Amino acid sequence: MKIKTIVCIAFVIGTMFSAAQVVAQSGTFPQTADPASIPANEKLVVVWTSGDRDVALKMVFMYTYNAQNRGWWDDITLVVWGPSAKLLSEDEELQGYMKRIIESGVTVKACKGCSDQYGVSDTLEELGITVLYIGKELTHYIKEGRELLTF
Fold this sequence. Notes:
By secondary structure, the chain is an alpha/beta fold. The protein has helices spanning 2-26, 53-69, 83-90, 92-103, 112-118, 121-126, 135-144; strands spanning 43-48, 75-80, 107-111, 130-132, 147-150.
């Protein structure tokens, strides 16, 4: 189990540095196609609910950023839901990383019900995140057949 974990972490870190080199050389991020024309199995929804900072940095943000910049998916939506909204509102490093994720072309949305309960809706909107009641939209994503990752 430890070997698989180490290999996975090494792979993700390696791809992160490769993506950074591409961006540094070109100065731009890859562009995505019109979302309406993309098949559902090429659309990824990452649902981030964890309030654990390491989960954010080492899994959610790293994978989402690299998946976008390396073209692993044609359309990526990151959903900030629950304790992750509070964590993001309080952590400047995560906020900076989130800005890079948004700039790379990932669509980022947050659950308004949760962010209102934590009192952080305005902070998330200032980061460029669309804050809305997300339950119905997430249900649509699932019924549409999009791939779903949860953290």
